[in-house]
């Protein structure tokens, strides 16, 4: 009997230890479920839908990855990126959106308005963060920029259009007529073109609108502006950003100042800009993604975020080529080396 009691005691001891261990593991399991992949080792899959390759959008993706890495999500270790590039084609945007709908990644990053619209249209059960979108509410991606109300949130690349137009008055004080060039099919460009027209009117300038619908029209439309305007303004426009060298070849030859929406086109022949930093914008979006992946927030409750600090960038080489002496205010900015 004594021996039997020893066996029973041993069994109870083991059982209690197992029970305590189970409780401890259960607590850890509960904690792990809410913890980021950075601490659990779980591989997080992020789908990236990028409209096309150009400096601004590439910088956005870099910033996004850097932000996630700063939060413990290291590429190849506990996060993987499925990067799909639509090469500027709307049909490809739709194909990419449907691909991600089937793959069901943990989160989707949509870079630029057309890809964001395609993704948001077909995906409602996966967190989606958008970036390089001027006005998500206007693009019908969210219920409102303050309260998205669905599975989509992110960052806006709304630029200081009036300040950009004002640069022209500082560079060419007697300027009277500005040509506004944009892609007619891009929602973000349409919106900025309206802002630019309003800014011109407010500043006492006349404006004339010129549009393209595909890359084959860029050179012809750019040449049609020569002799009609004293300067050219291009907003943050994806198609024109990819064809900026073609535009710049025309404006530089005609000695027309070319003001653009962001620093990428300055590298490719624009004269100057005051605008956002896309790498910082991507970083901001990445920090939002980290909160979602950690279970700390949901896109529906995350207001669209904006940048509040702007950088002045100019192309000193272009200034010399068109015979422009830039004012001191602009020269305090960054002289951007022309892209190779």
Defining key terms:
alpha/beta; Rossmann fold; five-stranded parallel β-sheet; four-stranded parallel β-sheet; 14 helices; 46% helix
CATH homologous superfamily of the largest domain?
A: Response regulator
CATH topology of the largest domain: Rossmann fold
Order of helices and strands: HHEHEHEHEEHEHEHEHHEHEHEHHE
The CATH class assignment of the largest domain is Alpha Beta
End-to-end C-alpha gap: 91 Å
State the total count of DSSP E strands.
Answer: 12
Q: What is the radius of gyration?
A: 26 Å
Strand content: 15-25%
Name the poorly predicted regions.
Answer: 1-37
- List the strand order in the largest sheet: 2-1-3-4-5
CATH architecture label name of the largest domain: 3-Layer(aba) Sandwich
What is the approximate shape? elongated
Q: How helix-rich are the residues, as a percent range?
A: 40-55%
The major pleated sheet works out as: 5 strands, parallel
Describe this protein's structure.
With 340 residues, the protein is of the alpha/beta class. It folds into two domains: 40-157 and 278-301, Response regulator (Rossmann fold), CATH 3.40.50.2300; 161-275 and 310-335, Rossmann fold (3-Layer(aba) Sandwich), CATH 3.40.50. It has helices at residues 2-34, 37-40, 55-70, 90-103, 113-122, 161-171, 187-202, 218-225, 238-242, 244-253, 263-267, 278-293, 316-321, 328-331; strands at 44-50, 79-85, 107-111, 128-133, 152-156, 177-183, 206-212, 231-234, 258-260, 272-275, 311-314, 334-335. Helix 3 (55-70) runs parallel beside helix 12 and helix 8 runs parallel beside helix 10. It is elongated, with a radius of gyration of 26 Å. The N and C termini lie far apart (91 Å).
